Amino acid sequence: MLGGVESRTVSPVFVGRADELAVLTDALGRAAGQEPQALLIGGEAGVGKTRLTEEFLGEAARSGAVVAVGGCVEIGAEGLPFAPFSTALRTLHRLLPSELAAAASGQEDELARILPEFGDTPRGPHDEESTARLFELTARMLKGLAADRTVVLVLEDLHWADTSTRHLLSYLFRTLTSGRLVLVATYRADDVHRRHPLRPLLAELDRLRTVQRIELPRFNRAEVRRQLAGILAEEPDEAFVDSVFDRSDGNAFFVEELAACRESGCRAGLTESLRDLLLVRVEVLPDEAQRLVRIVAEGGSTVEYPLLLAVAGLSEDELIEALRAAVGANILLATADGDGYRFRHSLVREAVSDDLLPGERARVNRRYAEALEADDTLIRAEERIIRLASYWYYANDAAKALPAVLAASVAARRRHAYSEQLRLLDRALDLWESAPEEVRQALRPVDYTDVYPPCGCDPAATPLQRLDLLAEATVAARFGGERERALKITKTALRLLGEGGDPLRSAWFWTERSRLVSSLARGDGWEELAKAQELVKGLPPSQVHAEVLVRAAGWGMLHNPGPDNIDAAERAVAYARMIGADEIELNARITVGCLLTDSGDLERGLAEMRAVMERATELGLVMLAGRAYINLTSQLEGVGRSREAADLAEQGVELVGKSRLLDTEAWIRGNMAESLYGLGRWDEAAAAARRALHVGQSAAPRGSAAARHAHLALGRGELAEAASQLQAAHAQFGTHDSQPQHRIPLFRLAVGIAAGEGRIADVRTEVAAAIDYGFPLGQHRYAWPLLLAAASAEADARGLPVADAGRAAALAVLRAAARTLATPVPVWVAHSAFFRAELLRAEARDTVADWADVEEAARPLERPYLLARARHRLAEAMLAAGGDREPAAALLRAAHATAGQLGARRLAEDLSLLAQRARLPVTEADAPAAEPAPDTDPVEAWGLTSRERDVLRLVAAGHSNRRIAEELFISPKTASVHVSNILAKLGVAGRGEAAALAHRLRLFGPVTTAAGAPPRRV
């Protein structure tokens, strides 16, 4: 309505920025080809970011793209959670209602946390995965919306963004890999000082090659001249150009202000003070318009017309006249949707706000707050609570501000904006002592807190305490990823409680500290849990008491498995039942089920976990059901029921996937990968492990997924990849993770990689470390594969000079360790038999009967890789013993076929060379060539020359290049060239791996030096 009264202070000619606009339009074209684009536009205040963005949006609209813009809102220090995303999505909801509804289908309740138009914000669930779950759903919605149309999403003023907005933007920049989406964010570079919260995000995004960053420089003199010509509609006087350029220093907005001052005849426009320059056109407005501008400046980035009418104290006619004057002077602008007003540039708003007197600012904020309390329809419902809290806070009214800030913290929690919740709780803690006693006494925990269980009191009748806020802040910090801050808050709370404080409250905070210390790699959390247990000892049953017992039993199950933990877990179940805490009871029953299974009571333990899984699913406790799926699939795999475990994991993924429990999904998929590996479905196992790595948010499930990748790479003979994934797993688990289920498999991987590379000394070192670490109750499932890998390494290294010393002691150590391990089910019986046969092979005492026992034990297990390895060794033993060759040939063919299906390259090579030495075909196609000439050398199969064969023989003896040169009367450089060629032909990464291959396949007999003496060790 007031757009026509605007005076022209903006150039109608788009000046400069041609290169920057070309980058943006090029991104638009790339997005049309299903390549999502991410761009950051930075520059100082007034340099022209908005004008560039507007020009780009015009181009995008003309090309048929759907455009949505959202601006970050500066309200106090905390900001509105997800404000720019909510605004932009609201535009998309208006433009594409059915398409957006389809993209959000089935997840409207969760997405209502960002776009309230989808419905009421649900109260829960709240956990450390909540934010990641919301981000994943938002990304999926945008991807679906941009599947068949180009969508341009612009977020302005990122320097004011709340923490949740910054985290969501970072997530989208990192994860959007398909769709016709252009995501642009602008920020004011001169505001981003060293400690600004946006700075780490910018540094992170700079490292992403998918993000383009555009920095806008100031105009040069020629560009300032063109801008002035556009504003003035005539060529400017050169002296005036010089004056404006000198005083504006090329800042486009200052050029406009100086031009406007000249046009309006205000000589004060050329004062040295920047604030005076920005205020001068405000000061020439009519008094009512000036007062209105000051009110708008304190209302926020945008002020709605109904709210302005309620606060201004003017009749509607007077208000419109005042607005007409401010809009006509190009100080205020009507918003795009026509329901409010904002400053044309934030620099002017900041200058006007800074010019307010302290008492004047408080009075204006009070009027805003009173207006909102009197009529809650003046602004959008989702903004009312947070803005009311801000207005009362800046009105310096602690009595009103404290409950308002607490209500805002609850609203932030419901939106999973935990960082904003934490900031608001900090503000409430600051206001606590200033608020009158009667105000604090009227507050109730039930209204403002959600995480802290009642400790022997009625939360509806007991006044809210400072400790309640500290508890809420602890969990908000943990959910928001600020674990260091959470740890500090628990320290403050425990200091406040002191030695004689409420033991239940103290125990609750110690339990939180246990969780935090563990996740921050400061320890395993047991010391803190022990203190919590001591505090609740002898107290009546309570929710805190039951939670402490459950966590202690769970800690014991993971870190120190043993029968004592069953008693603790069953006691936790009993306590939970006494107080009617269903979730705690079900959680404790999962732990009981795992411990029963580990102790040998298989069917009872599995039945208990299955019952919990079904009950939790029935009650809609998806996270708890997810934990049941994790543990049940793991235990089924541990007793050799891999097919059942894999099928159950599919069901679990479907359940938790609907609720986007990302870490839970990662754990289940990791278990699925383990079961699929055992079943010989290696490609499916690799896909499951990749997905686990993709969705996992926390270190532990990502570490587990990396370990699954390493196992697959090791099985396929890809030693470099296995070593890389092992390193990644170690990095994720860290040095603090003492859980046997994580540590022992990593020892097994290290043994396998060292063996593959011919480092038998490292194999023995890793085995010694693993045995020193120990194999607690139930960990035989991880220990048997480790000991089997070590025994196989010793057997393969038989005849390797560096392995001779210490072999007897190494084998004795392995035998002693195996005597401590259980074999409760057939799969571990087979491993035990395989292990014993490998030890005999390492001593050259294995027989056909030994390997026949192994093959017979492995045959019914649905473990194709294990069976193929057993058949390889049985065939080898049968051929060495002489007699009928056809049974050995059949075993070789079956094992070779399995190795080919799995992609087990190393096993396939071993089988091929064994067949070649025995002159047996491993496939039907090989049959015509089954009888090679008697003088055929197996080494020739690798394409090695006679000289390279001589070099490989000495490499297998452990010689250095210099020693090889001496033996063969060649130069060290020539020896080095031969070694490099050998490594390439053998397809191995190093000389140790080449030596191990030669010895494993028995390519050579005993090695002697040129003088006939045994070779020296080098």
Structure keywords:
globular, disordered C terminus, mainly alpha, disordered N terminus, three-stranded antiparallel sheet, 1018 residues, five-stranded parallel sheet
Describe the overall structure.
The chain contains 50 helices and eight strands. The chain has a five-stranded parallel β-sheet with strand order 2-3-4-1-5. The protein is mainly α and about 1000 residues long.
Furnish the topology, listing elements before pairings.
Blueprint: H1 18-32, E1 37-43, H2 49-62, E2 66-71, H3 83-95, H4 97-103, H5 108-111, H6 130-145, E3 151-156, H7 163-175, E4 181-188, H8 198-206, E5 211-215, H9 221-232, H10 238-248, H11 252-264, H12 274-283, H13 287-299, E6 303-304, H14 305-312, H15 316-328, E7 332-334, E8 340-343, H16 346-354, H17 358-374, H18 381-394, H19 398-414, H20 418-432, H21 437-442, H22 445-448, H23 466-479, H24 483-497, H25 503-519, H26 526-536, H27 543-559, H28 564-579, H29 582-598, H30 602-619, H31 622-638, H32 642-658, H33 662-678, H34 682-695, H35 699-715, H36 719-733, H37 740-756, H38 760-773, H39 780-796, H40 801-804, H41 807-818, H42 826-842, H43 848-858, H44 864-881, H45 886-902, H46 905-918, H47 946-956, H48 961-968, H49 972-986, H50 991-1000
Parallel strand pairs: 1-4, 1-5, 2-3, 3-4
Antiparallel strand pairs: 6-8, 7-8
Helix pairs in contact: 1-2, 3-4, 4-6, 7-8, 9-10, 9-11, 10-11, 11-12, 12-16, 13-15, 13-16, 14-17, 17-18, 18-19, 19-20, 20-23, 23-24, 23-25, 24-25, 25-26, 25-27, 26-27, 27-28, 27-29, 28-29, 29-30, 29-31, 30-31, 31-32, 31-33, 32-33, 33-34, 33-35, 34-35, 35-36, 35-37, 36-37, 37-38, 37-39, 38-39, ...
